[in-house]
Amino acid sequence: MKIETIHKLCCPFDKADLSLTEITKDVNDNILEGFFVCSSCNRLYPIVKGIPIMSPDEFREFKLERPLVEKWQKHLKGKTFENFRLTEPLPIEN
Fold first, then answer.
1. CB neighbours of 18 closer than 8 A, spacing ≥ 6?
2. Could you state, in chain order, the average pLDDT of each consecutive group of 10 residues for the chain (94 residues)?
3. How many CA atoms lie within 13 Å of 67's alpha carbon, on the beta-carbon side?
4. What are the two backbone dihedrals, phi and then psi, of residue 21, each rounded to the nearest 5 degrees?
5. Residues forming a β-bridge with 13
6. Handedness of CA 51, 33, 20, 53 (dihedral sign)
7. CA distance 6 to 68
8. Residues 62, 84: contact at Cβ < 8 Å?
9. Considering the entire predicted model, what is its pTM?
10. What is the distance between the terminal CA atoms of the chain, rounded to a whole angstrom?
11. What beta strand segments (E) does the chain contain?
12. Which of 7, 31, 34, 82 could staple 23 via S-S, CB 3.0–4.6 A?
C-alpha cells in the first residue's frame, strides 16, 4: 500500500479519520502489514500484504482476523479486539 493512498482513506462507516500503525514495509516504503483505527468508532482495519481490509462488518470474518490482532498485540497498547473494534481492557477485580 502506497503511503500516498493513506491520505485518501476514511472510515467507511462514519467517514472519520483513521490513524495508521505500520508493522512492516517493503524496500520502497510501501506498507505491507499494519492496521488503521477509526478515531470515532474504534474499528480496526487490518492491512494484509499491502491491502487494507475495509469491508462492512457483516462481510468480515472475526476468526480470520483474530490471529493478526494477536500477533500485533504489542502495537495495540493494551487494548482488546472485539466486534472488529478496539476496546479498553476490563479492570481486574480484587
1. 6, 9, 10, 11, 36, 37, 38, 39, 45
2. 81 92 92 92 93 90 88 87 78 54
3. 4
4. -120, 115
5. none
6. positive
7. 20
8. yes
9. 0.84
10. 45
11. 18-25, 31-38, 44-48, 51-52, 80-82, 85-87
12. 34
- The span from the CA of 34 to the CA of 83, in Å, is 18
- CA–CA separation, 51 and 41 (whole Å): 21
pLDDT (0 to 100) of residue 31: 93
- Residue 72 in grid coordinates: 500485533
Cα 48 to Cα 4: distance, rounded to the nearest angstrom: 17
Beta bridge pairs of residue 35 = 21, 46
**To which residue does cell 467517514 refer?**
15
Three-state secondary-structure class, residue 70: helix
Looking at residue 93, its pLDDT comes to 55
Q: Looking up cell 505500520, which residue turns up?
A: 22
Q: Which three three-digit cell numbers place residue 67?
A: 490471529
